[in-house]
């Protein structure tokens, strides 16, 4: 299994590792870990930079697993998504990010917190921008590495 994916250097390795562990037959659970530290971004600029980088890393995940149906089924999207997109299920994260204003509105309504709306839209669009900027490089890199 070889552990974490050292490429790309700005994200995607944790998702890749988790999927490979799952594929190897291990169960994955979310566990509570009291006393752990989470580094929250102190401002909009830091948040946008983080999300942009995560989007760049996710572009490489898309390129790597675009043809692996079992990877995309792990998301457990609606059956309609899989029927409509079929071999293009990997486009769903991009489409979801494009619909950030709608998702943000639904979250704000459900949680009764309107301050969530601009935060949600900004972070999802920064993620989308990172993905879109990096996709060509990701597909080119995956083509040359063969995996």
List strands and helices in order, with pairings.
Layout: H1 13-23, H2 44-65, H3 69-73, H4 79-85, H5 92-98, H6 100-111, H7 116-145
Helix pairs in contact: 2-7, 6-7
How would you describe this structure to a colleague?
Helix content is 64%, strand content 0%. The longest helix has 30 residues, at 116-145. By secondary structure, the chain is mostly helical. Helix 2 runs parallel beside helix 7 and helix 6 (100-111) crosses helix 7. It starts with 12 loop residues before the first helix and ends with a helix. It is built from seven helices and no strands. It has one domain. The protein has helices spanning 13-23, 44-65, 69-73, 79-85, 92-98, 100-111, 116-145.
What's the short story on this structure?
The chain has helices at 13-23, 44-65, 69-73, 79-85, 92-98, 100-111, 116-145.
């Amino acid at each position: 299994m070889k552990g974490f994916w050292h490429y790309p250097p700005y994200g995607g390795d944790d998702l890749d590792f988790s999927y490979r562990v799952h594929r190897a037959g291990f169960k994955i659970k979310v566990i509570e870990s009291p006393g752990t530290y989470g580094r929250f971004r102190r401002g909009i600029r830091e948040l946008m930079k983080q999300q942009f980088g995560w989007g760049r890393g996710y572009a490489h995940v898309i390129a790597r697993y675009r043809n692996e149906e079992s990877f995309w089924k792990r998301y457990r999207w609606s059956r309609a998504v899989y029927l409509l997109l079929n071999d293009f299920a990997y486009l769903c994260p991009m489409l979801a990010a494009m619909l950030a204003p709608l998702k943000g509105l639904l979250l704000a309504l459900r949680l009764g917190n309107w301050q969530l709306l601009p935060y949600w839209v900004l972070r999802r669009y920064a993620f989308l921008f990172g993905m879109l900027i990096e996709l060509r490089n990701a597909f080119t890199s995956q083509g040359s590495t063969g995996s």
